[in-house]
Amino acid sequence: MSNSNPTDTVSSSSPSSAPPSAPSSAADPAPSGSAPSAAASVSVVGLGLMGRALADAFLAAGHRTTVWNRTAVKAEPLVAAGAELAPSVDAALRASAVTILCLTDYQAVRDLLAAHEDALDGTTIINLTSGDSAQAREAAQWAGERGARYLDGAIMAVPPVIGTAGAIILLSGEQADFAAYEATLAALGTVRYLGADHGLAALYDVAGLTMMWSILNAWLQGTALVRTAGVDAATYAPFAVEMATEVASWLPGYAEQVDRGVFPAEVSALETDVRAMAHLIEESERLGVNAELPRLFKTLADRSIAAGHGGEQYAVLIEEFSKPGPSESGGSGSRSGS
After folding, report:
1. Which helix (H) or strand (E) holds 172?
2. Which of 39, 150, 211, 247 could be a cystine partner for 143, CB 3.0 to 4.6 Å?
3. pTM tops 0.90, yes or no
């Protein structure tokens, strides 16, 4: 998915805050903004496909890298490449000033660290495990209560891209903690700091997934339509890219409307858009193509028009997206762990 900087709050520049103190037994982190040092040490806990890619990238950048995994055999290629295998989680935490976690979920993180709380005091945890924003904030509080510094992160890339500029690593937490390890984390890809709220990386992660699936589903809907006329997906794809690129260029202007809460119909009124949605539904149904996606578009727009917003621009639908849907009201749509 695209990971371009959507706001001025996202920065890959080096904050000026001083780095936190590190355990005396571990190598000091490289100063913020400097090239990663071969002496800078890092531990990686969790060696699935992504965890192994993270460790590989640190090794390739010249960092002393300690690894641990419940199934030690997964560490063998990394050890052959120069990594040090920790005999325990406790040893991995004590081997480096910073430990990267890449586990199955936040419960696995909690279970693993709870058994080694004594090793947390004075270290820095960077958690790149997927989860939600509430879990990230809870993990930060839990770690802080045990003397650890904590950054939460999201990896916007697949394992083969790690170590290249195309791998976007989102991080949130205290700026000084980010500053201390920005240079080290640069080995993984393009690092972006989002802010002090530990939940921001998880929120950006799911927001990015929304963009990804929306674009893919819209392309599949369009492909299904043109295939009824014998047009193949490869022929339609360049036109779809042009459309997606053009629509993406509208986002800054729409963002201004959303932030102001004022939606003048500068291009098209929502009631006009609804007529086009009806046409899309009718054409899909006539051609025997699934119309569930365009019907969803129209359902949201109809609801907004019923609330008196038919004369405003499309971005007014933020008011529909910002409240629970009919099936979610009353808490039935809440997620466990949030």
Report:
1. strand 168-173
2. 150
3. no
